[in-house]
Amino acid sequence: MATALKELSWFGEDVCLADVDAALSRLRTEASAERPSMRTSVMTHIAWVPTGWVEQARAALEGMAELHPSRTILLLPQPHADDNRIDARAEVERWEVPETDRGLVTEVVELTLRGSRAAAPASIVEPLLISDLPVFLRWRGEPPWGTQELDQLVGVTDRLIVNSIEWDDVPGPYARLAELFPRCAASDIAWARTSRWRSHLATLWPALADVRTVRVQGTAAQASLLCGWLRSRLGRHDIALEHDPAEQLEGVALDGEAVPLPPGDPPAPSDVLSDELERFTPDPVYEAAVLATLD
């Protein structure tokens, strides 16, 4: 486990991207002044964070730096601001590598996109991407389907990470998400949070093959995705879904018979995001489950 040794920061109003890049370079130099450090980013992690999601986004990033050394860019759109500018905050953190005399340096950039600057995020973020490394995009809340902001950022992204628990009126929005599957790989934290239950339900085979109704106590997204998973895996689209609303996935019943709780505890939000940042290819099982929710 790495240990944080030093954290340095810079803030600027009405900046250009050259200012941000220069600040990052200066902070990296300062962080490594006493002992040599390695800049070992494995990705660029972008997060689109509308008003109302900022604190949750920051909390999810805590504790991830030593697991996923990266340049993280938080885009904070304020399209209704009364001026057009970019405010920026850059942080560089140095981590000690155990049993060595070296350290790791990680970077977090927050860009507040005010006014019209929020409408062109790709052109803003592209100069800050680290070349030849994968780009992950975490979108907080439901994406604004069909907008240029989403279209632009998907265009520079290798993997889109959403959490459909944050969406209204599922499963309807899954149709719009499925339109993005040919353009980039997709991850859904709501789907990841069903993994214990999916593994557990799979042990019920072959009795599982004849199920007619699945009742899920959890969020609407988790209920829809679990039912979609059963439909797609069994090749049967006549499986009915009954949903008991709850803030998290608490129980599943098949044809009225409760399924015992799976072993283990639900993972922490940062652990779920960390796992998704280790996936680099499309997930055909998830994609099939998404499509099956629309039957």
Indicate the topology:
Elements: E1 3-12, H1 17-31, E2 37-38, E3 44-48, H2 54-61, E4 71-78, E5 85-96, E6 103-114, H3 121-125, E7 135-139, H4 148-155, E8 159-162, H5 174-178, E9 185-188, H6 189-192, H7 195-202, E10 213-218, H8 220-234, E11 240-245, E12 251-254, E13 257-258, H9 269-276, H10 284-292
Helix pairs in contact: 8-10
What's this entry about, in short?
This protein is an alpha/beta fold.
Task: Characterise the protein shown here.
- The protein is 29% helix and 27% strand.
- With 295 residues, it is α/β, with parallel strands linked by helices.
- The protein folds into 2 domains: 3-157, no CATH class; 192-292, no CATH class.
- The strands form 2 sheets. Strands 1, 2, 3, 4, 5, 6, 7, 8 and 9 form a 9-stranded mixed beta sheet that branches.
- It is elongated and about 65 Å long.
- The model is unreliable at 1-5 (pLDDT under 50).
Shape: elongated
Strand content: 25-35%
Q: How would you state the average pLDDT, rounded?
A: 89
* Count of DSSP H/I helices: 10
Based on CA atoms alone, the radius of gyration comes out at: 21 Å
Question: What's the number of extended β-strand segments?
Answer: 13
Regions with pLDDT < 50 over 5+ consecutive residues? 1-5
Number of domains: 2
